[in-house]
Amino acid sequence: MTTDGTAPPAGRDGTAAVRPVPEPLAGTPPEPAVELMVHGVGGTTPEKMLEDARTTRVTGDATASVYRRTEDLADRPCGDTGPVREAYIWCNLTSGNGARALWLLLLPFTIVNLAHWMRPAAPGPRRTDRLYDTLVRLTALSLTVLLAAGACAVSLDLLAWQCAASAACAEGTSWIEPFGPGHGWWAQPGRRLALAAVVPLALIALLWWLSHRTWSAYESASPPVRPRPDGGDHARLSLPGFWYGRALVARLRATHVTAALLTVAAALLTATGPYDRGGQGSTPLAVCGWLLLAATVAGGCVVAVQQARHGRTEEEPDDRPEPSVTRTLPRAAMLLLLLVVVHTGWSRPDWAATGRHPAGSVVFPVLTLVQGALVVAVALAAHRLHRQARSADRGALGGLGGACVAMLACGLGGVLTGGVAQRLADWLDPSAAPGEPGAAIAGPPVLLSWEASVIPLLLVVVLGLAVAALLHARRSKKRLAASVRDQYPDESCEPLRERSDRIASAVARASLTDHAPVLVGWISGACLVFGLTAVAGSLTGDSPSRAAADSPAVLSFTADACQALGSWLMGIGVVLLLAMGRRAYRDTASRRTIGILWDIGTFWPRAAHPFAPPCYAERAVPDLSWRMGTWVDSTGGRLIISGHSQGSVLAAAAVWQLDAATRSRIALLTHGSPLARLYGPWFPAFFGPQALDALHRDMPRWRNLWRATDPIGGPAGGGDPPVDRGPLPDPMHYGRNLQRPLPEPILGHGDYEEDPAFAQERAELFRALGHAPLAVPAQQGQAAEQRGP
């Protein structure tokens, strides 16, 4: 949309026409000038960004919009009052109402999706890239299987198989008692299992609906159609199809739904199989069970093959129609599951449920080992890419950041699954620990009990790392405090110990961000070791407390304490995750803290897991690109896009989507930017030094402001002319003076606009734009003429 609310002229293909920007003629009025501001993760209002109570929405909807002050609706040149300011408000894409806190329960899916984008930036053929992506997608698929298996452990095992078969448990739970032993038609285990399959089926349907709903709202935003010059090495984020993942998410959703349905079918078949094939059931039921099991295994093989074939197409927007096999898979899996439910519910009068569900002791250990093998394979592929990449583009943890993050996703998925199962088992049988002598039920699968027992050990590792970080910050504070006063040579006040300590402490705390890779590496390594330990312990068939019953008293007490404490910690972790998410969407301070990692996670498209929270950038980046491109096309004016924190990442991604002619009228001003400090080490293929150098070549009028007290923002790199200005003094004044009689606050990550350097750099960028030559290559002008007037 143009500033007057009308659509830009359309080309022959129905897209907005791309016109070369006309050269200003002598004697013509000065060009209009606009500063387009993009806020960060904390969220804000247009009134606060524009510093005016009267604002008007220029374009957009209730989810994301561009606002101006009401008195600035008409374009004007940059004068004494500065440029016309616009505010792009995108916070509703990630926060919105408090119900979105439920997305935090899908945090393992978000984390594994991050691993897809963390590969090192290796040049040359992309065979290893494709192998890395395939392995991450298979790891993501295993998390979906884990989710479905966990739902089956809760509904099929604990409720239908164990509690409903135990008179003591069924009588203590009123809504299970009608399905308990001695109640006629429902006394058969198969019929209870068939009914309980509704729970995982409802969960799968909910995830499918959420993925489909957000897919329609986020991944469907069309990117601007802008010509790119042929040849050359283009940054990955400049590809026209990068922010358009509609088709890929649809294909991934189909295969993950199919895998989840097949998991439920396998859980039902492993319950009926031992009875039917043990000579107690009828031969026709055994034959049907074998056929259904073969169909389930075949369906799993097809899903694995389809998952390996699902790659991203970024050279052009991916509008390919869904393959027929992708549309057929969920329907076929649903039909197969219905047949399995009928087969499970078929009458077996002499069948009785005892102990745990037969599949629990096999599925979870095998799934854990498969996930461990996939993570190791991801690490090997990443190591190969690491060796091929330039030293500056190898990424965090020696290129193994993606493998470590995938390990964390698997570990967190196991903790959430085990936490729900452990809490439900304790609720069903509060009189004794499940599985112990005198207990009404056997309890959850043994592996989940072992996983609960290693949680306190993992917590000790995390606390040790936290203590080490605090000690490092304390030492840094003492070292920096002596030089704080020297950073203000123009002030005449005497050094104040308390003031210097406070500033040095802020700098020391901010520097801890640079040690995050060490923290992630240690935790992921501990998850791998403790996970293998839990698998080895589960092979004994007993819970940790029972396995240590004949050991010395100290060891037995330790095992009992770890199992009980771990069980509570797993359950509390689920509740705490929801509470933190709910608070983050209600309280601004909590939102700033939690939202940093959350907004980094949901910035990237869903390339590995379709049930992850939606990618807000697939709406925000096209919004910004369309706004900048159409405004420059319609006015020929000068524009600065000013991004703070995560807004600077959106601004850089949007600039990359523009053609050279439009970029010649645009400058980039970033402040508090995590581009090089956070995104560079973790996502080197997209924001590493080579990619940021390419951005500087594409955007020579780019300036970046940063502070040493900022835990998020940092320098963006070199360049000629240089990009960075900083570190800016924070606080701006050390002591009291005539202009500032009260103490100045330490701003840290916020309020960069209050620093005089911000206004100076903005004015300098507008002056540079006024003297910049227009980049209108001949091939772009010809392309524009072919598209339309």
Automatic annotation (TrEMBL):
Keywords: Membrane, Transmembrane, Transmembrane helix. It comes from the Bacteria. InterPro entries: AB_hydrolase_fold. Residues 21-31 have a biased composition (Pro residues). Residues 1-31, 711-733 are annotated as: Disordered. The chain crosses the membrane at residues 101-118, 138-156, 193-210, 254-272, 284-305, 329-346, 366-385, 397-421, 454-473, 519-541, 561-581. The keyword Repeat does not apply. This is Integral membrane protein. The lineage of its organism: Bacteria, Bacillati, Actinomycetota, Actinomycetes, Kitasatosporales.
